[in-house]
Amino acid sequence: MMPEHRLVGSRIREKRLDRGLRQASVAETVGISPSYLNLIEHNRRRIGGKLLADLARVLDVDTGLLADGADRDTLDQMRGAAAGLSSQVELDRTEELAARFPGWAALIAEQARKIAALEERSQVLTDRIAYDPQLAGSLHEVISAVSAIRSSASILVGPEDLDQDWQRRFHENIHKDSVRLADSSEALIAYLEAPEGVLEQSGSPFEAVEHFMQKNSWHLPALEEGAALTEVLKTAGLEGPAKTVLRKVLDDYAGGVARLPLAQFEKACRKFNYDPAALAQNFNISLTMVMRRLAHLPPDKGHPPIGLVICDAAAALTLVKPVPGFTIPRSVGACPLWPLYGALSRPHQPIRMDVALPGRNGTRVLCFAVAEAKGQESFDAPPALQSMMLVMPDPPETAADPYPVGVSCRICPRSGCASRREPALKGMDIQTVL
Amino acid sequence: MGKRVLLIEDEPNIIEAISFILSRDGWTVHTHEDGTSAMDKVLAMPPDMIILDVMLPGRSGFDILRDLRGHHTTSQTPVMMLTARGQEKDRDLAMRLGANLFMTKPFSNAEVRDHVRNLMEA
Fold first, then answer.
1. Residue A174 region by backbone torsions, left for phi larger than 0, else alpha for psi between -120 and 50, else beta
2. pLDDT in tens, A35-94
3. Which residues of A touch B55 (CB under 8 A)?
4. How would you class A270 by CB atoms within 10 Å of its CB: exposed for 0-12, middle for 13-18, buried for 19 or more?
5. Per the CB < 8 Å rule, is B21 touching A169?
6. Is any Cβ of chain A less than 8 angstroms from the Cβ of B88?
7. What are the DSSP calls for A76-136, one per residue?
8. Which value does ipTM take for this structure?
9. pTM given for the model
């Protein structure tokens, strides 16, 4: 999670745009330069005390709401909660609810996250019962032993006239099968109990990895300082599929460290204003390696927040590093207009796109996307494509109109969108949200 | 000598129990435990009826059933499938492939005996 003070600037910007005020005029009224206000709005400078109170007065909002009020992420999560459950709620009053009752808003968002996690876990369990060969094998063992015992026992207690030799054989068979049943039952119980830890991770290996990276602010000093990948992997404490996914993420991270030492890279980032293409050219290195490296910059050195999303050729998200102002849903289909997906149809052609999310504050995000083949390419085999998108919130304003995108169709108010999959929920009308 | 039933099953104690029940009911029971060579065994001594387990080492009972129905010698031989998996899709698959009956484990001895009698009388 970003520190709270970094979100205050985004809220100031949202409120200023809401009220149609120019940056220069607001800055002048509160007695600061427009460039300083610009730094505040982009969360590059701390703000509090009198200046915050002055800005709140100019923007006609309560100082507390400006400091702690609902941010875009919470609003998106609340709308996502409504979309996920197809609830008929007053979506047009989401912002009001979040501003007036921030605790309830956070609870709604958290509960939606938990529901999504539980649904995914339940799906994993269903898949496990249906397809897990180990479970199927264990159950087969149990049922086979039970069948044999039942048949043998029925013969012994049945009307058949059995000589002693047959009786002895069936008794022995029952004994052997009962031992086998005990063993296979124990194995089954052990198997059903053991996955507790594994399941948490295997339920959503990508999210488990993202959780670990988020806890470390996506920056791993140990890896930066040359620690062995296996050591870092061990400290993460992940098992099963999540461990495999993390190994790949760390492998890519370590590759970037080897080619782009941190101090050198940070210096170049500032020089080239975090432009991935310029950095790739400067270091004569692949664009995707630079993009990953940008996403792993240290969080406390004044770098702008940078998000990263990676998906495979089926548009399944394999890595999501969120940043304030940018969310992309996993559980419900994301907006297909993001350049992340557009890049899949034009591999090896980088896309730079300034996009705007729907909403009165018109949150803008600068995206850099490219799709490339991953792994070893070979003749007569289709490449395994993956698409990567770097996300930089609140880019400097440009003359060109930003490209309109959404979060998900269900909560998107845009009309006339050729890419719409399904209607928006009731209440997501243009007048109230745009 | 009674009619011949071939039991293709890999669980030794189930083999012994079914063999005993059917022998006492007048059938001549032959057994085979391996999926890979099951078809050779069938063709070497075409039985009057086959009891076929689904999960066998080497080859599944479904694959063997498909071959049985594709071979002129066994295309009409009554086949009763046995499985520990009672899922509807397995039953559907067995019946589509031409099984005459599908029984799930655990079963009662009386059921096995009655089904075999009924199939042979049909």
1. alpha
2. 999 888 887 787 878 888 899 888 887 776 677 666 667 777 888 888 766 667 777 777
3. 140
4. exposed
5. no
6. no
7. HHHHHHHHHHT----GGGHHHHHHH-HHHHHHHHHHHHHHHHHHHHHHHHHHHHHH-HHHH
8. 0.89
9. 0.53
Contacts of A136 in chain B (CB under 8 A): 85
CA atoms within 13 A on the CB side of B11: 30
Contact indicator for A244, A318 with CB cutoff of 8 Å = no
Q: How far from each other are the two terminal CA atoms of chain A, in whole angstroms?
A: 27
* Residue A122 Cα, gap to closest chain B Cα (Å): 20
Helices and strands: H and E segment counts in chain A: 20, 6
pLDDT at position A198? 45
Least confident interval from A4-18, A38-52, B14-28: A4-18
Contacts with B21 from chain A: Cβ below 8 Å:
151, 155
Interchain contact B28–A (C-beta under 8 A): no
Chain A residue at shortest CA distance from B20: A155
Of A147, A158, A169, which has the smallest distance from its Cβ to B14's Cβ? A147
Residues 6+ apart with CB under 8 A from A139: A188, B84
Nearest CA in chain B to A154: B109
Contact predicate A343/A389, CB 8 Å: yes
CA A215/CA A155 separation, integer angstroms: 63
